Amino acid sequence: PLEVVAAVSAAVGPERTSIRFSPWSPWQGMRMPDPVPTFSAVIAHLAQVHPDLAYVHVIEPRIAGIEDADGVFGEESNDFVRKLWSPRLLILAGSFTRDTALAITERDKNVIVGVGRHFISNPDLPTRWMSGAQLTPYDRTTFYTEGPKGYIDWPFCAECGRT
Question: Judging by beta carbons within 10 Å of its beta carbon (0-12, 13-18, 19+), is residue 134 exposed, middle or buried?
Answer without folding.
Answer: exposed
